[in-house]
Amino acid sequence: MDYYELRKYIFKLDPETAHGAVEFLLESAGFFPFVLNYLKKKFCVEDERLSQRIWDRDFKNPVGLGAGFDKNATMIKGFYALGFGFTEVGTVTLKPQSGNPKPRLFRYPKYESLQNAMGFNNDGAEVIKERVKRLYPFEIPIGVNIGKNKTTPQDRAIEDYEELIKTFKEVCDFLVVNVSSPNTPNLRDLQNEEFIKELFKRAKAVTDKPVLLKLAPDMEIDTALSLCQTAINSFADGIIATNTTMDYSLLPGAKDFGGVSGKALKEKSFVFFEEIAKHFYKQTVLISVGGIDGAKEAIRRLRAGANLIEIFTALVFKGPSLAKEINEGILKELDREGLKNIQELIGTDRE
Q1: Active-site annotation holds for 269
Q2: Which of the following is catalytic: 113, 181, 261, 269?
Q3: Which of 13, 17, 143, 295 sits a CA distance of 20 to 30 A from 349?
Q4: Residue 55, in any domain of the structure
Q5: Residues 51, 58: contact at Cβ < 8 Å?
Q6: How many CB atoms within 10 Å of residue 168?
Q7: How far is CA 233 from the centre of its chain?
């Protein structure tokens, strides 16, 4: 049975229940080497032309798992076996939190999109740190996406981020500052130059691990560019664009809360990312996420200037072979263009 047949049954389940089932399967696979080896043979694409050296770390391919899928760092081995070149776990908060009331995850199959109002539900920093610590260093780079607790006052938010950086600095390859989720009240208000400048100043005082800023696609582009420049001037190691959108007009039948992801976000995310890439390509590491659903879109983001790309929602609709299909598509593009490696493809629309 192929994934599209199986999906009919998966989609009969509540979206969050279905996600829990996938998590159980991928977490369980991590305990059985023969299962992981089978998955690797089926889904991993091994080709030096896909590899890059970024932040003194080896990325076997440019396809990463976006934050939000593996909130509690239970599926790292499983996603490595599915052919991913890196993974970003979280969002992790200092204290455990249950997130927003259910239902909080909605599926729109016709539009290959999701809407979520999860609210940083996770097991908390100490529990997740111990999970990652058991694996680190791992075969692929592990990023940790961090955010403030819902109950943390705005004027103490920076303390949450600083403590999270201290907690994870020895057990990950990079950290991602999440101030762009729409599901924690007033979180996006932290997307301001004063906060970002002070946050990265503190981050660099406590760790030499790469620390990146993740942006929402709903701010004015001039504001976003100014924020990126502030982050880079403050020694941020990269920009991730974009988080989910609160532009509900993009998705017919959308709720009036939470964030929209998937195909409905694709063009908005691309336009936003391209504007950032026009200004900051080659100045810092750029990671594109938002609506990437196959090799064609991944290649468009790479050509626009993305060093790496991340997928999330499309996994729900396209299935576990998506990373493989993207990597194989990139290799075909390299062959077609007569390019020796992925570095020669990245930023070709910026030259």
Answers
A1: no
A2: 181
A3: 143
A4: yes
A5: yes
A6: 26
A7: 23
Dist CA 234 CA 65 (whole Å): 26
SS (H, E, C) 275-287: HHHHHHECCEEEE
**DSSP letter assigned to residue 190:** G
pLDDT per residue as tens, the chain (351 positions): 789 999 999 999 999 999 999 999 999 999 999 999 999 999 999 999 999 999 999 999 999 999 999 999 999 999 999 999 999 999 999 999 999 999 999 999 999 999 999 999 999 999 999 999 999 999 999 999 999 999 999 999 999 999 999 999 999 999 999 988 888 888 888 888 999 999 999 999 999 999 999 999 999 999 999 999 999 999 999 999 999 999 999 999 999 999 999 999 999 999 999 999 999 999 999 999 999 999 999 999 999 999 999 999 999 999 999 999 999 999 999 999 999 999 999 999 997
What was the pLDDT predicted at 183? 81
> What letter does residue 254 receive in the DSSP assignment?
-
pTM of the model: 0.97
Query: Which are the contacts of 50, defined by CB distance < 8 A and separation ≥ 6?
Result: 60, 61, 62, 85, 327, 330, 331, 341, 342
Q: Is position 351 within any domain?
A: no
CA atoms within 13 A on the CB side of 254: 24
Crossing angle, helix 322-337 and helix 295-304, to 10 degrees?
A: 60
CA 315 to chain CA centroid, Å, is: 12
Alpha-carbon distances, residue 107 vs 14, 19, 22, 104, 267 (angstroms): 9, 11, 15, 10, 19
- Answer whether residue 43 is part of any domain: yes
The answer to whether residue 350 sits within a structural domain is: no
Nearest to 143 by CA among 115, 121, 164, 120: 164
Q: In terms of residues, how long is the chain? A: 351
Question: Backbone phi, then psi, for 66, in 5-degree steps?
Answer: -70, 155
CATH of residue 95: 3.20.20.70
User: Rounded to 5 degrees, what are φ and ψ at 86?
Assistant: -165, 170
Q: Which amino acid would we find at residue 336?
A: R
Q: Which of 110, 82, 64, 63 is nearest to 22 (CA)?
A: 82
Number of H helices, E strands in the chain: 12, 13
Predicted pLDDT of residue 69? 97
- Domain extent, residue 263, equals 3-344
Number of domains in the chain: 1
